[in-house]
């Protein structure tokens, strides 16, 4: 076999392995989404975080298991210097995965023409918030922040499918909305909730 043929063969093998891994990751994410949607059905008028939050949590847990297996099966032993880093990696992915699955399983939002209510990631249900109580809306780092007339801040994570409708309802009720956010809202299709 010539060097050119060997390089081509190596390239094709790497491409096949890469495609296989990408397909396996995509299928596991979709399977995780399906499992979460089946395990936590949405009731009438209820909205939740997108199922990819839980799927990423499941994938994180699977990666923690992979790291654990690679460390135990491989040549790693507790005497080596990198044991603490390996244990930290496994712990971080495990804790992150469990946290994402727990958040996705617990967080819920209910809304109607007059009120909004949220159950947070810890299972605590907020009191019903009237749309007129929302004074100001502005984007935060990971969520949309709704400042209420009593000074409290209500946060709704980005990626929540119903977020645009919540923004329009708050705007209709007189909430002051950040200028850049208002521009984006006007460019996106207005939800039909009347």
Describe this structure in words.
By secondary structure, the protein is α+β, with helices and mostly antiparallel strands. The protein folds into two domains: 3-106; 108-187, PH-domain like. 53% of the residues lie in helices and 17% in strands. It contains five helices and eight strands; from the N terminus they run H-E-H-H-E-E-E-E-E-E-H-E-H. The protein has a four-stranded antiparallel sheet. Strand 2 (108-111) and strand 3 form a beta hairpin. Helix 1 crosses helix 2 and helix 2 (52-73) packs antiparallel against helix 3. The longest helix is centred in the first third of the chain and has 37 residues, at 3-39. It is elongated. The model has no long low-confidence stretch (mean pLDDT 80).
- Taken together, the total number of domains comes to 2
Summed up, the helix count is 5
Strand content: 15-25%
Rough outline = elongated
Radius of gyration in whole Å, from Cα? 23 Å
Terminal Cα span: 71 Å
Helix content: 40-55%
What is the total tally of β strands? 8
Helix and strand string, N-terminal first?
Answer: HEHHEEEEEEHEH
Can you list the strand order of the major beta sheet?
1-2-3-4
The average pLDDT value, as a whole number, equals 80
Contiguous low-pLDDT stretches (5 residues minimum) are none
Tell me the major beta sheet: 4 strands, antiparallel
Please identify the structural class as seen in this structure.
alpha+beta
């Amino acid at each position: 076999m010539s060097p050119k043929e060997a390089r081509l063969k190596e390239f094709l093998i790497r491409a096949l392995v890469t495609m296989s891994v990408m397909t396996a990751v995509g299928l596991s994410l979709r399977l995780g989404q399906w499992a979460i949607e089946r395990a936590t059905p949405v009731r009438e008028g209820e909205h939740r975080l997108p199922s990819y939050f839980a799927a990423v949590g499941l994938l994180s847990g699977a990666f923690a298991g992979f790291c654990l297996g690679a460390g135990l099966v491989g040549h790693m032993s507790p005497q080596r210097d990198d044991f603490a880093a390996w244990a930290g990696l496994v712990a971080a992915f495990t804790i992150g995965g469990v946290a994402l699955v727990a958040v996705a399983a617990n967080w819920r939002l209910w809304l109607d023409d007059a009120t909004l209510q949220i159950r947070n990631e810890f299972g605590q249900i907020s009191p019903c918030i009237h749309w007129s109580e929302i004074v100001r809306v502005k984007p935060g780092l990971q969520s949309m922040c709704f400042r209420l007339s009593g000074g409290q801040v209500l946060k709704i994570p980005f990626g929540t499918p119903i977020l645009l409708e919540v923004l329009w309802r708050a705007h209709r009720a007189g909430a002051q909305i950040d200028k850049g956010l208002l521009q984006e809202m006007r460019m996106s299709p207005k939800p039909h909730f009347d």
